[in-house]
């Protein structure tokens, strides 16, 4: 424990910083949140030479220490706060060999904070390919640092990097340049007013737009003899600072780096010519989306059926093996079917995150942003809204967090508000099971009706999102700066390790996050379904027996009648029938009603709830789907899940705002209850009306 | 009239001369959009907007509106 050091990984986006993190920590990493905010905090542990242990934090990517978003702010807040328990003993700045000049801007800023700083130059394997050569000794001398030349793709240089980190005490803490030269008088007065503070740190605190919480901002305003500057003046000084830093960097690189352009091979231009083409660009994008949906539907159906049947037999096995009693019933009828309802999505979620990770890693996502910006702007969105709208097909929560890099507040707010319309993976199990029940099998043009229905539902979600954005854009009276800067990174072959770790991490957090809610709800539901008040429930056996005394029912049929009588008079049955009048016009019975109510916690609870309700009292080993198919409509007779009620249910789930976690994240990101409440009310009312119309027309 | 970045045609190059307008975000400067640096229009999105640029080796896309505040001197085709 004594020798653990804090290492902060810092760097521009697209430099392979996360690859370095993965190479250092492997599976010894965890993802959490910074306290109070929803920025992802990635940390891990790495063993260094000579028994030194390193605690490594992968900080959000940033181009400079002038934060323009919550994510970037995390970086500065950590670097400025020496009391933070994560305050780095060493800052490792990750850069990539092709964009060294731009990456060094951040490096020189961090050097000014007098933290031991190490420069990592990643993607060294591409140097000869790009005709770049570096004079490492020269660079080390003039940048006053040590340089680790590595390639995470080839796994080269990692041991050397670990060695350099372990010897962090040898690193220089002298700044590369004197930033205060941009305005000597101003910086002199700053120094006089705060003699005990690091000058560059003061400058950063003064210039940040973002609120720094406890960091010394108040102190600065409080000192009387210090003349503050206007915002415009400060911005001009920041521009001057940036220019000065680039002058320094250009001078260093003039000698330290040579680029032979004739040696450079350029794949970018070739790919860009097709992928951002005004026709082919869109066609390719469409086909990529098509492939994703096909994969989610077709490729994951086999493992899903497998999981479904495993949980059904597990329930059965528990019932047979454990002694009869309330606990066995709770396990077999409450917990196991409830858990089955979540584990079953793992294949699909994994596929979704896999595709999204590949699109991001390869650099293709930026091209989509570029292609879509003009189109999206017509609807009050930004090209960058495409990323949340696509990742919203996995889960609205990370999607809403992904809106942070949208610069304009209005465009960002609209994106946050409409993202929950996109078909998230929690809707999938509901869609899949209902589609399987009510849409006939069969194919048209090689595509199955069922897959087409699913695609149509995705399309409806997307169109609704865009259309409501259009309306919001007209209604919302918000003026905000609209600017838009997006880096177009080089195309890269996604690294297996990075993609695999992302998929594992995201799937895990989804399953455990949703799993907890589902588990709790299914236990509660089981209790409500297994117990009831009064004679009608407790005396069910006698009531049913005397009712059917004249008919000669088999023992099994009688058991069935008793079970359903009990369910109807249990706590859940009573509640369900109380809300039935509201949902009957949509074609649902009280059991579906209960499932809808409980799925306001999270949509995927729907299937788990029905599974729990149906399995209470039934002895046979049955899959969820078969149980649902055999449900009978209490009023009309015939199957409960018909084409009309099925479509109505699908549409209800397409539009309704049923996810507490999303509402919580919207509250956090917009910093007000107004927006999540509006979302909940408007989306759910709309869902009800559409489902009502659909059922009444199709009935 | 002074040329701005928004006047570049596909493949054309220029040298940035002035970025002092308050409509230019600092982030853009940090990415290398500074006086004296070369800039080339790599590609235009459909509807001529946004613009895909190569500024001194950094590839990025910005909207035409922002581009119209960045003054340049054209140096013609490559």
Automatic annotation (TrEMBL), chain A:
It is found in: Cell inner membrane; Cell membrane. It comes from Flavivirga algicola. This is Ferrous iron transport protein B. Residues 4-171 form the FeoB-type G domain. Probable transporter of a GTP-driven Fe(2+) uptake system. The chain crosses the membrane at residues 279-297, 335-359, 413-439, 451-472, 510-529, 592-616, 636-656, 677-698. The gene is feoB. Gene3D superfamilies: P-loop containing nucleotide triphosphate hydrolases. PANTHER family: FE(2+) TRANSPORTER FEOB, FERROUS IRON TRANSPORT PROTEIN B. The keyword Cell membrane applies.
TrEMBL record, chain B:
Keywords: Iron. Signal peptide: none annotated. SUPFAM superfamilies: C-terminal domain of transcriptional repressors. Pfam families: FeoA. Coiled coil: none annotated. Residues 3-74 form the Ferrous iron transporter FeoA-like domain. SMART domains: FeoA. This is Ferrous iron transport protein A. It comes from Flavivirga algicola.
């Amino acid at each position: 424990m004594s020798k653990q050091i804090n290492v902060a990984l810092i760097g521009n986006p697209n430099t392979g910083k996360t690859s370095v993190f993965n190479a250092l920590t492997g599976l010894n990493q965890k993802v959490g949140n910074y306290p109070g905010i929803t920025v992802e905090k990635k940390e891990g542990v790495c063993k260094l030479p000579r028994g030194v242990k390193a605690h490594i934090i992968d900080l959000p990517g940033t181009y400079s220490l002038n934060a323009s978003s919550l994510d970037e702010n995390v970086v500065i807040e950590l670097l400025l706060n020496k009391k933070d328990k994560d305050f780095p003993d060493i800052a490792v700045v990750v850069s990539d060999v092709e964009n060294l000049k731009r990456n060094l801007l951040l490096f020189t800023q961090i050097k000014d904070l007098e933290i031991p700083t190490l420069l990592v130059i990643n993607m060294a394997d591409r140097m000869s390919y790009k005709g770049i050569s570096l004079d490492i000794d020269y660079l080390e001398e003039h940048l006053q640092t040590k340089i680790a030349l590595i390639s995470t793709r080839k796994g080269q240089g990692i041991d050397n990097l670990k060695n350099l980190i372990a010897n962090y005490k040898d690193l220089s803490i002298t700044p590369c340049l004197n930033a205060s030269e941009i305005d000597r008088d101003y910086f002199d007065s700053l120094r006089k007013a705060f003699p005990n503070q690091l000058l560059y740190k003061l400058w950063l605190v003064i210039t940040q737009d973002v609120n720094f919480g406890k960091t010394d901002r108040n102190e600065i305003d409080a000192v009387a003899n210090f003349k503050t500057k206007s915002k415009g003046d400060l911005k001009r000084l920041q521009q001057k600072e940036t220019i000065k830093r680039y002058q320094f960097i250009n001078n260093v690189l003039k000698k330290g780096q040579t680029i032979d352009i004739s040696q450079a091979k350029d794949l970018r231009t070739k790919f860009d010519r097709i992928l951002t083409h005004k026709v082919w660009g869109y066609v390719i994008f469409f086909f990529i989306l098509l492939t994703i949906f096909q994969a989610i539907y077709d490729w994951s159906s086999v493992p899903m059926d497998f999981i479904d049947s495993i949980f059904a037999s597990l329930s059965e096995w528990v019932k047979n093996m454990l002694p009869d009693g309330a606990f066995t019933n709770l396990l077999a009828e409450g917990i196991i079917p409830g858990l089955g309802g979540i584990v079953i999505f793992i294949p699909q979620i994994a596929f979704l995150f896999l595709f999204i990770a590949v699109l991001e890693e390869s650099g293709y996502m930026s091209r989509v942003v570029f292609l879509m910006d003009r189109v999206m702007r017509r609807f009050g969105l930004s090209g960058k809204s495409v990323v949340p709208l696509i990742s919203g097909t996995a889960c609205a929560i990370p999607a809403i967090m992904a809106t942070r890099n949208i610069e304009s507040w209005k465009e960002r707010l609209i994106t946050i508000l409409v993202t929950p319309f996109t078909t998230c993976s929690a809707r999938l199990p509901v869609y899949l099971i209902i589609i399987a029940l009510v849409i006939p099998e069969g194919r048209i043009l090689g595509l199955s009706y069922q897959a087409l229905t699913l695609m149509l539902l995705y399309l409806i979600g997307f169109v609704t999102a865009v259309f409501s954005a259009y309306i919001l854009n007209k209604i919302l009276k918000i003026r905000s700066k609209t600017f838009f800067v997006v880096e177009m990174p080089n195309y890269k072959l996604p690294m297996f390790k990075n993609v695999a770790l992302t998929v594992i991490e995201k799937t895990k957090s989804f399953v455990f996050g949703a799993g907890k809610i589902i588990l709790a709800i299914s236990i509660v539901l089981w209790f409500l379904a297994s117990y009831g008040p009064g004679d009608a429930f407790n005396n069910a056996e006698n009531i049913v027996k005397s009712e059917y005394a004249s008919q000669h029912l088999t023992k099994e049929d009688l058991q069935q009648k008793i079970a359903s009588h009990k369910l109807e008079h249990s706590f859940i049955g009573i509640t369900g029938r109380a809300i039935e009048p509201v949902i009957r016009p949509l074609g649902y019975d009280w059991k579906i009603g209960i499932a809808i109510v409980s799925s306001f916690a999270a949509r995927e609870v729907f299937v788990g709830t029905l599974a729990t309700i149906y399995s209470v009292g039934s002895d046979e080993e049955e899959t969820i789907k078969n149980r649902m198919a055999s449900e009978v409509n209490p009023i009309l007779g015939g199957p409960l899940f018909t084409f009309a009620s099925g479509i109505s249910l699908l549409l209800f789930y397409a539009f309704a705002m049923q996810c507490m976690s999303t509402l919580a994240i919207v509250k956090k990101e917009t910093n007000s209850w107004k927006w999540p409440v509006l979302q909940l009310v408007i989306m759910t009312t709309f869902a009800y009306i559409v489902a009502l119309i659909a059922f009444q027309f199709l009935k | 009239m002074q040329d701005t970045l928004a006047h570049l045609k596909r493949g054309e190059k220029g040298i940035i001369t002035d970025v002092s307008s308050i409509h230019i975000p600092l982030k853009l400067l940090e990415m290398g959009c500074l006086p004296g640096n070369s800039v080339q229009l790599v590609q235009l999105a459909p509807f001529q907007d946004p613009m895909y640029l190569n500024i001194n080796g950094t590839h990025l896309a910005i909207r035409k509106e922002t581009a119209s505040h960045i003054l340049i001197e054209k140096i013609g085709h490559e």
